[in-house]
Amino acid sequence: MVAGHVEQFQETLTALGSEGWRLVTATPASDVWSAVLEQEVTAGDRYGAVSQARIEVRDDDGAVTTTVLDADGLTVTDGVVYLRRADEVLAAYRLEDLVTVTWQSGSAYARALAQKRKDHSRHGESWSMVEDEQLHREHGEGWSVEDMVTEHQRGRGAITSRLAKLGLETPADSPSRRSPGPR
């Protein structure tokens, strides 16, 4: 909740607005206004990356504790900060107890995913029946896992997991027996 005389209140709202806060309600009481503000952060992306709130709270003894929550929003009302995911309230803290609330977007996951895709362009994609048949054929022809990694543009773990799911043993690391030429 933000409160103050009109000029102070307007300055505060302008500053908070530039930081991603939005006004939910504002109530005048003579020349003093109070407002409920809300801040939205980027929710999860299509790969499931979720924003996290890192909260530092001072207890009655002055000790600071840190909590990290997968959250996509924060609401401040009546001196209480509510962290939530979708419409579920995950935690509530008195405003005066908060030391900091910082957001870490799902971008760390996105960067890791981009790096994996740089190395293996099909990382994270679903397997098709055609690819499963191709793995069966390659396994029968004695291909090494590294050759399958190169052919399918997926990581070693993805190949070995898929082979196991198909009931095929992971080939021992051996020299390539890959058939030459395009497939």
Question: What features would you describe in this structure?
Answer:
This protein has helices at residues 6-18, 107-119, 129-140, 145-152, 156-165; strands at residues 2-5, 21-29, 32-40, 52-58, 64-70, 73-77, 80-85, 88-94, 98-104. It is α+β, with helices and mostly antiparallel strands. The strands form 2 sheets. Strands 1, 2, 3, 6, 7 and 8 form a 6-stranded antiparallel sheet that branches. A 3-stranded antiparallel sheet has the order 5-4-9, with no helix packed on it. A hairpin with a 5-residue loop joins strand 4 (52-58) and strand 5. The longest helix is centred in the N-terminal third of the chain and has 13 residues, at 6-18. The radius of gyration is 26 Å and the shape is elongated. It starts with a strand and ends in an 18-residue tail after the last helix.
Strands, helices and their partners?
Layout: E1 2-5, H1 6-18, E2 21-29, E3 32-40, E4 52-58, E5 64-70, E6 73-77, E7 80-85, E8 88-94, E9 98-104, H2 107-119, H3 129-140, H4 145-152, H5 156-165
Antiparallel strand pairs: 1-3, 2-3, 3-6, 4-5, 4-9, 6-7, 7-8
Helix pairs in contact: 4-5
